[in-house]
Amino acid sequence: MNIQRVGVIGAGTMGNGIAHVFARGGYSVVLCDVEQRFLNRGLETIIRNLDREVAKNKISADDKAAALQRIDPVTDRARLGDCDFIVEAATEKFAIKTEIFRDLDRVTRPEVILASNTSSISITKIGRLTKRPDKVIGMHFFNPVPVMKLVEVIRGLATSQETFAVVRDLAVHLGKTPVEVNDAPGFVSNRVLMPLLNEAMYTVMEGVATAEAVDEVFKLGMAHPMGPLTLADFIGLDVCLDIMRVLQDGLGDPKYRPCPLLIRMVDAGWLGRKSGRGFYRY
Ligand SMILES: NC(=O)c1ccc[n+]([C@@H]2O[C@H](COP(=O)([O-])OP(=O)(O)OC[C@H]3O[C@@H](n4cnc5c(N)ncnc54)[C@H](O)[C@@H]3O)[C@@H](O)[C@H]2O)c1
After folding, report:
1. What is the pLDDT of residue 1?
2. Per-residue pLDDT tens for 149-203?
3. Distance 197 CA to ligand 1 centre (A)
4. Side-by-side strand order, sheet with 5-9
5. Which of 32, 80, 166, 272 has the fewest CB atoms within 10 Å of its CB?
6. Cis peptide bond upstream of 144, omega within 30
7. What pTM, to 2 d.p., does this model score?
8. DSSP annotation string for 134-178
9. Is there an atom of ligand 1 within 6 Å of 96 CB?
């Protein structure tokens, strides 16, 4: 399959990183979000991150300029019509993904693979929204996308071997390491990670320790590069809550109950680093 033009839906934390790695990898990218201001913010982040790569001699100033040139920011989804591959990285809500995938099925050519960067929503369920469930797959990047090596490649029940092979090879071409995972709530990464972050939040809520102390325990005792509460702030507390709810609904075990402190913080608009306040202030 000849993939040259890639559509990325959502220019937030993940979407701008995904657009960055595809553009740096030589693909032309159509970056789509609902409002121009979200595109502007995403592009500013891409420029900052490319600058960092130039400063570290990972790419040249010419590579940076060429990568930026390859990104076409749009608010009109019809502009994705000539894309050869799509990655969706919009807000983690099934209602939002439903609207997007139904529309993508209409605006893209029938042979185009539609991938989702969802952290937890069933790929099988997303596939069923389209007339091409064999061409729907999870391509789960990690934050920050330009740095993190892993891509979880998630097969829905109906995903074809051909679709899987294309996405696996694409990940390798981007310099990433694909790991094959079957569809289940939270896949592997978030099924294991999120309950850890959620439990760390319970320890803060119950006054067992401060956020700083919990993070120190994990950094110094388990050699984690950052503690669970710093990581939750980095991921986005709204994203963490959405994922816990998917685990709770999908697996049904009470151990996946979202921490009440997390719910209160999201209600307050304390979403972590991106909102200036979470378990820490930024
Ligand atoms: N944050 C993480 O660490 C992380 C890691 C892996 C996967 N993910 C997943 O990636 C996806 C995006 O997460 P994020 O952290 O980038 O969220 P974010 O809130 O930073 O960005 C989401 C973007 O999607 C846009 N959007 C919403 N509805 C849209 C629509 N209908 N069409 C186009 N754009 C739309 C929003 O305007 C926003 O810019 C989610 O599915 C999330 O679960 C997140």
Report:
1. 74
2. 999 999 999 999 999 999 999 999 999 999 999 999 999 999 999 999 999 999 9
3. 20
4. 71-74, 28-32, 5-9, 85-88, 113-116, 136-140, 150-155, 177-182
5. 166
6. yes
7. 0.91
8. GGEEEEE--SSTTT--EEEEEE-TT--HHHHHHHHHHHHHTT-EE
9. yes
